[in-house]
Amino acid sequence: MIRAVIFDFNGVLADDDPIHMQALHKVAVEEGIAFSESEYMERYLPLNDRDCFQELWQKNGRDEIRHILGKANLLDCFSTIVAMEDVRRGKPDPEPFSVAFTRLRENLKGLAPEECAAVEDSLGGIQSAQSAGMPCLGVAHSYPRTRIEAAKPKWVIDSISDFSEWLNKV
User: Are strands 155-157 and 118-120 parallel, antiparallel or unpaired?
Assistant: First the structure.
C-alpha cells in the first residue's frame, strides 16, 4: 500500500530546468566560465542549485570563498580560510571553528579559544562557536535580532556594517 508520494520539485512539478540553465550560464559567463548544453544536462542538471554552482566552480579551479574575497580585494586580509571541504562535520558541530582555531594558533602561539571572537549570523553557527569555546558576535542578518539574542552570543549587532563600531568598543 502506498501511503505517501514524494515529488522532486525542480524539473518535475515545475518545468524550470531551462530557466536554471540560463541562470547558471549567465553567472558562469560573468565569471569567464563556459559550458555546453550537453554538459549542463549531464553534469549540472542532476544537482541542486547549490551543488550545481559548487561543481561548476570546482571544475574550473575556483574555490568559492577565495574567489569572492579576491574579487573584493580582501583575500590578503585573512591568514586562513576554512571551507566546507576542510571539515567532516559542519555547523552546529564545533569542528569548523576548531579547525580555524588550530590553524590560527600555528601563527599565534599560546592563543586560547576564548580569545577568538566568532562572527556568526546563524543559530547553528553561534552554537558551533560556543561549543568550540569561543565568544560569539551574532549578526542579525539571517534571523531577527530577538532570535539571535535567544542563542545567547556574547554580543549582537544588527548588521555587519556595525562591525567596525563594535570592534572599537571591545
Answer: unpaired
